[in-house]
Structures are given as C-alpha cells and as structure tokens.
Design goal:
By secondary structure, this protein is of the alpha/beta class. It folds into two domains: 194 residues, YjeF N-terminal domain (Rossmann fold); 273 residues, Ribokinase (UDP-N-acetylmuramoyl-L-alanine:D-glutamate ligase), CATH 3.40.1190. It has 16 helices and 18 strands. The chain has an eleven-stranded mixed β-sheet with strand order 1-9-18-17-16-15-14-13-10-11-12, sandwiched between helices. A seven-stranded parallel β-sheet has the order 4-3-2-5-6-7-8. The chain is elongated.
C-alpha cells in the first residue's frame, strides 16, 4: 500500500474526480457511506451518538454520516464548530441538507455525555497544518475528559497528517478509541510522537483512483500480507536441511544465554535448516540442554560455510570487540554473506565509531530500537526526526535499517516500509532477539526470486504476524517464547495465502 503526504492526498482526490468523472460531493458521499456502514456494523442503535464537526471537508464527512445514521434509526445529535457560511462548498451543501430535512439533530453546545455515549470526531482532517486553538481546542479538551467512546473520521482532530519537526507543539488533539482512516493510513499516525491518539486503526477504501496512486511518486509504503515476496513456499518432497540455509549466530554471554536461545530457536522455527551458535562455554552448556537442535561452538568457525551471519543478541560489551565485528563484516562482504547486527552488536559499534569507515554498514542489516539507533547514529529529538535520519542514512550509506517499534519501519535506499502486523504484547524482553532469528532464517534459506530487500520486509511482517497469532491464542500479555511458538503457524498461513493450499 502506497502512503502519501497531505498535499499529495488532496491531489489524488482531484485526480479521482477526473478519472471517475464524478463531482467532489460524490466522493465525500462514498467516504461517508463507508464510515456509516462500519458504524452500523459495530455500534448498537441503543447508544446515543454525538457528531462533532468542523466546517471543512472532514466536517462535511461528519454531516453526511450524521444524515445516514439518523435515517438508519440512531439517536444522533450534531454539533458544528465554526462559521458555517465560511465552510468548504461540500460542507455547506451537506449543511443545507441537514438544516432543511432534519434540523432537530442540530445542537448549540456539547450535550450531556456519559460512558454509553459515542462521539464521532469530524472536526479537522488531513488539511490541518497548525496547532488547534480557541473554541475547537476547548471542545477537544472536553471530549477527551469525558468517559465517552470516541471514533475519529480519517485522522484524530488536531493531529497533523505529515510528520512535523516540533510534534510537542501540537499538544491538543483528540485521543480516539478508533480511527476510521480513509483509503490509507496517514504518515503521522504511524509514529509514536502522536500515534497513541489513533486508537484502533481501521482502513476504509473510498474509491481513490488506483491509476492516480500508482503514478504519484512516494517513498512511503505500508506492508501487508499480500505485499510480501514469495519467501513462503511449500517444501519440496526431497528437500533436506542443507537446502534450507545455515545460520551463524554470534550471541550470548554470562547471564545472557537466553538471548542466544531465543534467536536460535526463532531461526529454526522460521525454517532455517541449520543454526550454529558461537558463544562462551556457559552459554553452550545451557543451549545443549535446552536446544538440542542447535549446533554449538566455543570457537569462531570458518564463515564460508554459512548463508547468513547474525551478530549481537546478548553478547554484552566485553565479549567481542569493535575490530572483530568490523573484520567479520569485511570478510562476509567478500563472500557475499548477508550480515545482521542487533542489540549489543550495535552498542559495541556505537562505543567506538572512530574505527568505522563510511561504507562499513553498506548492505548490512541493522535492527535497532530507538535508543540503540540514537547511540549508533546520533541523538534525535523525536520519532519524526529519527524517521527522517534513518531514511537519509539508508539512502546515503546503503544500510538496511529495521527501526523497531509499533509499525516497525524498514528503510531500504530512500524507501520507508511501515509494517502492518504486530501488537503491544510484543513489547517484551527478547522480542528483538526473536526478530533477529526470523530475519536470519529467511536470509539463509532465501529463494532466488526474492531480493534481500524484499526478504527483510517479509521477515518483519512474519515476526509481527506470529505475535498476532500468539495474542489471539493467549491474550495481551506475551513473552518472547510465545512469539517463537507461533512462528510455524505464521509461516504456514502465509504459505497458504501465497499458494492457495
């Protein structure tokens, strides 16, 4: 799914009108129908509804939704904030319909609200470019302080659609329980600066021209199951462990045997044919008891025999030096063996940047969480700045950056790929080690039809998908082993999706 900035979204709307030979009111009507149908399917008619609308096109959506809910038998009230005579043409057309046909729904102030009330937020849309002030800000504060459930249309009011340099200045915005976003997520909804205000995100198609979207240039994408490369294929009848890839995992140290266990078992459960762990003897002793499938080494083996090398989970700051990591990267590059650096591997590199060359991390996959990113690439003030910096580094240095978090962003060259799978239950110790194992397994057993760039996006998706299956089976509180346990089912479901088994 292609993602766009606010200005581009306006352009897509205009091109859609031309391509489909419709007027803007018809496009607004279609958006309102999609939202109203979702509400009809998910909200009881016993609940009172209050629609709070602005006077722009987002408010016009709100007025059309009000009309549809009213004629569907809902008890709905409509509060309009702003001067209706200065509203957008489509808003005003909808306002005239409301005024002439069912003006009884109009109210002059926010009615009494309790926890059974549903508030539909249609104050501001993607055109907002500055912080909310005045009467609108006061209404937003009242809504947020209420006990009512809140559904935002397209984007929570007060939230800028695009990432901004000073997100803290946008202090007043709706804290929605659900956001019915139209056609595609808006970029800022996917960042932690403001993303917590989105609640549950529901993407509703509204008929934006596919041709217009395809020809509109963008560097932002949203990865879903149907977008994955064909990394998931049924195993051939005469397949053996040698054809499914051999992973070398440099992981573990005193007190951190678990990181090696998690990464190694994740690689095996994702489909790696062989996994060798290079670790100290105390880690090896634990692995040999708990993971008999793993090959264990206390010395660094000849790397030529491996299809992928992963460095970092649980190695600490003393076990391996910056020079050794650099030597491994250089040697693997000559042999065209992919390298993944995670966790302590990144911290070791960050502690001695003087030894780097500018091209050291070219084609290397790094998987930092936000703090690790800042240690290795420099401190950033917020998530929007971090996203921009990661994009520039990936483009300039050729590094593949997997910036972990909700909607993990995969930066490849100048493209940013947000991941759609996963849930908050995966914010747990060891989840990143599992991701390293998943990426290394797909890289080691890679099919020639999938590029390394496509494989890393697929790996991030399958990691999140396994977490979603675990949450469905277990509940909201997960541990890293729960994700590992659901990796085979995740791989199987994606294999079936791709091959209709």
């Amino acid at each position: 799914m292609r993602l766009f900035r606010a200005k581009q979204i306006r352009g897509l709307d205009e091109e859609t009108l031309v391509d489909r030979k419709i007027i803007s009111m018809e496009l607004m009507e279609h958006a309102a129908i999609e939202c109203a149908q979702w509400i009809l399917s998910n909200v009881s008619k016993e609940r009172p509804i209050v629609v709070v609308a602005g006077t722009g096109n987002n408010g016009g959506d709100g007025l059309a939704i009000t009309r549809m809910l009213h004629f569907s038998g809902y008890n709905v009230k409509l509060l309009i904030i702003g001067n209706v005579k200065k509203g957008s043409p489509d808003f005003y057309s909808n306002y005239i319909i409301v005024q002439q046909r069912f003006s009884s729904v109009l109210v002059d102030d926010l009615p009494s609200i309790d926890k059974n009330t549903l508030i539909i937020d249609a104050l501001f849309g993607t055109g907002l470019s500055r912080p909310v002030e005045g009467e609108a800000a006061e209404i937003i504060e009242k809504i947020n302080k209420s006990a009512a459930e809140i559904i935002s249309i397209d984007i929570p009011s007060g939230m800028p659609s695009d990432p901004v340099k000073d997100p803290e200045s946008f202090a007043v915005m709706i804290k929605a329980d659900t956001t019915l976003t139209l056609q595609m997520p808006k970029l800022n909804m996917l960042l932690a600066d403001h993303g917590n205000c989105v609640g549950k995100m529901v993407i509703l198609p509204i008929g934006i021209s596919e041709a217009a979207m395809k020809k509109t240039q963008t560097n932002y994408f949203y990865t879903e199951a149907n977008d994955l490369c064909d990394a998931f294929k049924p195993r051939e009848k005469f397949a053996h462990k040698g054809v499914n890839g051999h992973v070398l995992l440099i992981a573990g140290s005193s007190g951190m045997a678990g990181a090696a266990y998690l990464a190694a078992n994740a690689a095996l459960k994702t489909g790696a044919g062989l996994v060798t762990v290079y670790a100290p003897s105390e880690v090896i002793n634990a692995l040999q008891v708990n993971s008999p499938e793993v090959i264990c080494r206390t010395d660094l083996p000849d790397i030529e025999q491996f299809d992928c090398i992963a460095i970092g989970p649980g190695i600490g700051s003393e076990r391996i030096s910056t020079e050794e990591i650099i030597d491994l990267i250089k040697s693997s590059r000559k042999l065209k063996i992919p390298v993944i650096i995670d966790a302590d591997g990144l911290n070791v590199l960050a502690s001695n940047k003087k030894e780097w060359t500018n091209d050291l991390l070219n084609k290397v996959i790094v998987t930092p969480h936000p703090k690790e990113f800042d240690r290795i690439f420099g401190v950033t003030k917020n998530h929007a700045e971090r996203l921009s910096k990661a994009t520039k580094i990936a483009a300039d240095k050729g590094t593949i950056i997997v910036l972990k978090g909700a909607f993990t962003s995969v930066h490849i060259k100048d493209n940013v790929n947000f991941n759609s799978s996963g849930n908050p239950g995966m914010a747990t110790a060891g989840s990143g080690d599992v991701l390293t194992g998943v990426i290394s397994a797909l890289y080691a057993g890679r099919d020639s039809s999938c590029s390394l760039n496509e494989l890393v996006k697929s790996a991030v998706y399958i990691h999140g998908h396994a977490g979603d299956l675990a949450r469905k089976s277990i509940g909201d509180i997960l541990i890293a082993r729960d994700i590992i346990d659901h990796l085979p089912a995740a791989v199987s479901s994606l294999t079936k999706l791709r091959h209709n088994q």
